Amino acid sequence: MKFHLKTLSLPELQEALAPVAPSPVAVRKVFAAVFAHGASTVEEVCQAPQVPKRVADFLRQNAEMSRLQVVERRQAEDGFVKYLFASPLGGRVEAVRIPIFDHKYVVCISSQVGCALACDFCMTGKLGFQRNLRTWEILDQVLQIRAEADRPVRGVVFMGMGEPLLNYNETLRAARILSHPAGFAIAGPSITFSTAGLVPAIRRYTSEGHPYRLAFSVTSAIPEKRLQVLPIEKAHPLPELVDAIREYATVRRERAMLAYVAISGFNTGREDAVALQRLFEGIPIKVDLIDVTDPTGKYLPPSAEELKAFRDHLQILGAPIARRYSGGKEIGAACGTLEASQYGGVVLPPPATLGPH
After folding, report:
1. How far apart are CA 26 and CA 174, in angstroms?
2. How far apart are CA 325 and CA 292, in angstroms?
3. Which CATH architecture fits 69-347?
4. Domain spans of the chain?
5. Is residue 110 classed exposed, middle or buried when 0-12, 13-18 and 19+ CB atoms within 10 A define those classes?
6. What digits encode the pLDDT tens for the residues 158-190?
7. CB-based burial, 153-190: b 16+ in 10 Å, e otherwise
8. Which residues are catalytic?
9. pTM over 0.85
């Protein structure tokens, strides 16, 4: 059986090439050809500089590479670009190219086809779970977006379709490759995993000491409210989640990032701020406020006045409060709207007709 070059970390590649006893330099050159330079075929890898003939011949016989199909690229007025991909293994997923000022991009990527957690305000959750993505499918989202980008990709967030900690091994392998100097060379702290609160995986992640960040979806510190919108509250109640977050913050000696989806008339009152303060007392945190984006209209974002009042209430936390911009709403690229959809914005032509960057 052939091995897939886009699926192997550097140590795994060394092991796969062991029959031809390559030098460490040769292994690194193959790895860099795939990930740093974005080779799209095995033959391109074989022709890379400093790849010895015996290694190239072995790769031609034993290695393979696949690509996701770009179904379309769709751009919103705010510059967010959503890529819709189809996989030869089945299913469609989305990734979003996020502009950061005018000098770099962050890419929001998917880890699963669909999602099993069924968060009530999330369109991905309404699709149900189909399957986990393989490492190469995760990385190919970044590879293809990077290849067409006019600025460097400096960050990756696992905040697209799926719960990344339910696809633990594949997403962590992808992160190791993304952060490797001979891979994508993205700094570890610039890679973020968003989790709805999968406590056993959070504890495992903390014990393994990864350099990437976790963002914890809390949305309400009142159990009854949280259960209404995040069914995972039933399996992993808030007290368990808070204990895991405390451990994470203690081990890493940093503030834990809480993602709080603000919903008008639901979780933006003084009682919500007080509950949050009591629940996380003694734990260093920072809070990212995210306006809900629910195309069904069931949940609405708070008005400017409501959000300002809530931020005032949150001052009792004594913690940094930030408002995270959720862009690309009109193309279904905002937080909670990814559902492999095709609407709004401007459809971009394939790169062959885009001209040079």
Report:
1. 21
2. 11
3. Alpha-Beta Barrel (3.20)
4. 7-64, 69-347
5. buried
6. 999 999 999 999 999 999 999 999 999 999 999
7. bbbbbbbbbbbbbbbbebbbbbbbbbbbebbbebeeeb
8. 94, 335
9. yes
The backbone torsions φ and ψ at residue 320, rounded to the nearest 5 degrees and listed phi first, read: -60, 135
CA distance 92 to 90: 7
Q: How many residues does the chain have?
A: 357
- CA 132 to CA 162: how far, in whole Å? 8
Of 70, 6, 71, the closest CA to residue 37 belongs to 6
Six token digits for residue 181:
């100097």
Residue 304: burial class (beta carbons within 10 Å; 0-12, 13-18, 19+): exposed
> Cα–Cα distances in Å, from 237 out to 95, 142, 223?
30, 34, 7
What CATH number belongs to 7-64?
A: 1.10.150
